[in-house]
Amino acid sequence: MATITWDDIGERVFESGIDKGVLYLPNGLAVAWNGLTNIVEESDKEAQPVYFDGMKTNDIVVLGDFAATMSAMTYPDEFLPLEGYATPRNGVYIGDQPLKTFALCYRTLIGNDVEGERAGYKLHIIYNLVAIPSGKSYGTLSADPTTTVFEWSITAVPEEAEYYRPTAQIIVDSRTLDPDILEALEDMLYGSDTEAPILLPMPELIAFLTDWYRIRIIDHGDGTFSAISNIDGLIVFGADPIMDLVTINEATTNPVVIVGDSYELSDTFQVGELTDIIFVDNGDGTWTATTDDASLFTETVDGVFEIREANPSYINPYTWRVTYA
Predict the structure, then answer these.
(1) Which DSSP string do the residues of 226-264 spell out, in sequence order?
(2) What is the per-residue pLDDT across 115-152, written as a single tens digit (0 to 9) for each?
(3) Same domain flag for 168 and 229
(4) Domain that holds residue 282
């Protein structure tokens, strides 16, 4: 049995810094927020004790909503209408107008003892925000001038998220998210050479992140299949014509292998690095699984088998993806 160890090389992780702020306007436009210096996320969760016969028996946790304090050295001009300034013409601002909602994306850095401050990062995507400005302090110039820091209290209105509690916040960790999904997401949030930046509505963004695929096989029910891909170059046509599915790490070309009424695909890893489990649909609501590595299956009770050492990924209440490295 392995014992617990502390402070192993590469596991001294810390978070530090904020950058790449993006302001998403109500009309869908995205604007870089230069000078975003600090966001202090506040937790308004509350535990309410439950007593029975004079003894505490439980805590009921009341979940709160997103709120934070945001600071910046400056802000984009497009932010002024959001905090209550009307602009009847360029250079004229009329205060005390209704606030408008917006969305925000910013990045926080993750470091460790090996890679320093660039070991990874988290993308924070916040929807339905309202910003209430704090007081501004202006002082006379002196031999030791100071820069005005702008500050806002921001709150968010949660919205429905299928299968989850209503929320206004999504966090993406670059260290664990599939790098191809991360690249596609950042091309969307920041824009690319061919597309303008855009923030999908929350339900669509959750669906994008959870349902994203490299290659999807569609069974038409007549003995034919179609393959579609989110990445260019993974589907190529060879001789005969035979459709090949090309792995993203430039491993050898892997065709679709038909095994009875099932098929198996290899995607990300070299073929020699994969542990294959083949699932066969028995047509009666049950599946049969076979593998060359018998240690992956363990009988528990009543003839029920468990698959061990797998990395299951939740897709939806009816679908899980199982991978092995």
Answers:
(1) EEEESSTTSEEE-STT-EEE--TT----EE-EEETTEEE
(2) 888 889 999 999 999 999 988 777 777 777 778 889 99
(3) no
(4) 215-323
